[in-house]
Design a protein that fits this description.
This protein is α+β, with helices and mostly antiparallel strands. It is built from 5 helices and 7 strands; from the N terminus they run βαααβββαβαββ. β4, α4 and β5 form a beta-alpha-beta unit.
Length: about 170
């Protein structure tokens, strides 16, 4: 099945919210509390994604992986919001896949597209944050050539303040 990467539209909000919840429930099982993961709902995420797509922030992009007219993944990028970011630094805010799309190359394709767009928009460096315990995602970023830059935090509310680490890549 061919996967097409395209910019998201407001009509994609529910599919993105569904992927978001299902991905978190699969990827973070054993890393975040089961009660938290089991309590995630598409309705909660829907309003967040709908608002973001209907009122896009300048320089942010939301990309979807579309497989036979079905959203199977999404990525969100834009300028880094880290206080210590140099001008020209971008951030991959999110990348999530429908669990049935894991290990099929969809994530690599979506990731490559999002990063190439950042490069084309003139960003010189990019960062991303990942749960310190998320070995699978960390291997993905390691293979892609990204490196830990030494920054860590426990202040990411979306991760329940569990330790997260920052990766960095040169886009030059």
């Amino acid at each position: 099945m061919a996967v097409r990467i395209r910019e998201a539209i407001p009509a994609d909000a529910e599919a993105i919210a569904t992927v978001h919840v299902r991905s978190w429930q699969a990827a973070y099982r054993g890393q975040l509390p089961d009660e938290y993961l089991d309590g995630l709902t598409v309705d909660e995420r829907l309003s967040q994604h709908q608002w973001a797509l209907e009122h896009p922030r300048p320089d942010w992009r939301v990309w979807v992986a579309d497989e036979e007219r079905s959203v199977v993944g999404f990525a969100v990028t834009g300028p880094s919001e880290d206080a210590d970011a140099d001008p020209g630094t971008a951030e991959l805010y999110a990348i999530y896949l429908e669990p049935s799309s894991y290990r099929r190359g969809v994530g690599r394709q979506l990731f490559a597209h999002a990063i190439e767009d950042l490069r084309e928009r003139g960003f010189r460096t990019a960062t991303l944050w990942v749960l310190e315990s998320n070995d699978q995602a960390r291997r993905f970023y390691d293979v892609a050539g990204w490196k830990l830059d030494g920054a860590t935090t426990t202040e990411r509310i979306d991760c329940l303040n569990y330790p997260t680490v920052r990766y960095r890549a040169d886009l030059g």
